[in-house]
Specification:
By secondary structure, the protein is α/β, with parallel strands linked by helices. Bound molecules: ligand LLP.
């Protein structure tokens, strides 16, 4: 059975996380409920830090907030001494409002708005990762107008195709992200950045993809990037001092998933990097990273209540299929529909019973929002509490109000305490931005 972080089975045969009985959490806070395991989240940040400090001391790690951001999460990231990557005005605003130091923020985005660039300069973000020449021009103008200098990394496309879902591959040649090394666009961007008075080019950035279960793509990208930094030195005389390799390390969604541990990942990354630098006789730059999923993914789980259960005939073969319906689905976790994502379910209130029944977990939206296809569970009953593991990354962050569902609450659990960190939306939350023009107002007379 897959149990992650502080998850365990307690004396009542219930799933426990952060010292809290998940059946109690469901009762107290309602379902669907996102539950975040503080010790696991902090533990992953510490594991990253230790693994890289031991092997490549000149390094800095930013948490990629797109995976999951709310103010309490930002506070945990600050407390762990991490930097943070933000990719929109909203992420930047959340970070700053939660007291995140501006100089520890990295601003991303492949089509940044003037507002985003201007906010970033006002908040003194540590690095702007520039994606394209339009943005370079905009940033120069904004920085000049504000009488400041913008510290930047240039996002470069290394031309590495990672083996992951096509929607989360970003390092290949055919991509909207960054400037291509092969076509010469990246070198052109470097030269342009060096000409500008209000831009300080510090280094280069790449990100090859997400949920990578081996290190092959990262190794390829590092070699390509160091080769490029060497070419920059040859062509411009400038020795770039920072290399950001993005994020991308995968996590366990199923028991059989076997991503490299953070320690093993660090070993390969640092060895590859040092070997590439030595072979180019290049001075060691600062290594920057921005993992998201591998820090927070396994720390999250979602609790649902099982409602309707149906047995339907299977087309073209004898037998029946059992559907167990949850009280959430596509709106709190769109990943199965978007990326064919797979998940592990646990029956939180009956953990010790045999997992011997084929069940398909369905959502409650007005379409076929299968959450988990053909999985093994104890025979489910209406009212059971279902836990879906590894939902910390890109679930809450990608949640919607589809079918006017209210977005679930999130609790942070640790050592037997559960604190609400995001309130459940109420029905009026769904209405407060709606306006009825005068001529359409109901006439109750
Ligand atoms: N840096 C950059 C520039 C990125 O684009 C990303 C993710 C990261 C860092 C963090 O990657 P991670 O360590 O989390 O793999 N919604 C998709 C994932 C999209 C990832 C986008 N970029 C999903 O649900 O799988």
């Amino acid at each position: 059975m897959l149990l992650l972080g502080t998850q365990r089975i307690n004396e009542l045969g219930h799933l426990e996380v952060g010292g809290c009985d998940t059946v109690d959490l469901a009762q107290k806070f309602g379902t669907p409920l996102y539950v975040l395991d503080e010790a696991d989240f902090r533990g992953k940040m510490r594991a990253y830090r230790t693994a890289f400090e031991q092997r490549y001391p000149r390094n800095e790690i930013a948490y990629a907030s797109k995976a999951l951001l709310c103010m309490a999460v930002a506070r945990l990231v600050v407390e762990e001494g991490f930097h943070m990557d933000v990719a929109s005005a909203g992420e930047l605003y959340t970070a700053v409002k939660s007291g995140f130091p501006g100089d520890r923020l990295v601003l991303h985005g492949n089509n940044k708005s003037q507002l985003e660039v201007s906010m970033a300069l006002e908040m003194g973000v540590g690095r702007v990762v520039v994606d394209n020449l339009n943005e370079l021009n905009m940033l120069e103008a904004e920085a000049a107008a504000k009488g400041t200098v913008a510290p930047i990394l240039l996002r470069v496309t290394p031309g590495i195709d990672p083996h992951t879902h096509k929607f989360i591959s970003t390092g290949q040649e055919d991509t909207k992200f960054g400037l291509n090394i092969t076509t010469g666009a990246a070198m052109e961007g470097i030269k342009k950045a060096l000409e500008f008075e209000h831009i300080k080019l510090i280094g280069v950035h790449c990100h090859v993809g997400s949920q990578l279960l081996d290190t092959e793509a990262h190794e390829g990208a590092i070699n390509r990037m160091i080769g490029f930094m060497d070419d920059v030195r040859t062509q411009t005389g400038v020795v770039l001092d920072e290399l950001n390799i993005g994020g991308g390390l995968g996590i366990r969604y199923l028991e059989e998933h076997n991503p490299p541990s953070i320690e093993d990942y660090a070993e390969v990354i640092c060895n590859t990097l040092k070997a590439a630098l030595d072979s180019h006789n290049f001075p060691y730059p600062k290594l920057l990273q921005e993992p998201g999923r591998s820090i927070i993914g396994e720390a999250g789980l979602t609790l649902y209540t099982i409602g309707a259960i149906k047995e339907v005939p299977i087309a073209e073969e004898p037998g029946i299929k059992v559907y167990a319906t949850t009280n959430g689905g596509l709106s709190d976790n769109p990943r199965p529909q978007l990326y064919d994502a797979v998940y592990t379910p646990l029956l939180a209130n009956r953990m010790n019973e045999p997992y011997d029944q084929q069940v398909t977990i369905a959502g409650k939206h007005c379409e076929t929002d299968t959450l988990i296809n053909n999985t093994l569970l104890p025979k489910p009953n209406t009212g059971d509490i279902l836990a879906v593991l590894s939902t910390g990354a890109y679930n809450f962050a990608m949640a919607s109000n589809y079918n006017r569902f209210r977005r679930p609450a999130m609790v942070l659990v640790n050592e037997g305490h559960a604190d609400i960190i995001v309130e459940r939306q109420n029905l009026d939350d769904l209405l407060w931005q709606d306006r009825i023009p005068e001529r359409l107002k109901p006439n109750y007379e």
